[in-house]
Amino acid sequence: MANVQYYDVILKPVITEKSMDLMADKKYTFLVHTEATKNQIKEAVEKMFEGTKVKSVNTMNLDGKNRRRGMTYGKTAKTKKAIVQLTEDSKDIEIFEGL
Q1: Which of 3, 43, 63, 90 would bridge with 53, disulfide CB 3.0–4.6 Å?
Q2: pTM summary value
Q3: Which residue ranges of the chain lie beneath pLDDT 50?
């Protein structure tokens, strides 16, 4: 795997109705680098957001969708999504507050 730093691991948060419902259980959803491991994701969350402690990380690989423009077919890029569960005594992540 390429040299991926902790600030390159988390690309952006996922804001959907389902991910908002999971925030009540201290579960946060992020799009992450496709080659990031669970340990790298855990380390990145704990370093980027002060006072957070990660309990578990669940990941899923998503294939690209088929797209068509006229007679030309193609696929969008593959992505990886991570659901991060924080411990009970951990602080909440501020970027999701007020949504």
Answers
A1: 90
A2: 0.87
A3: none
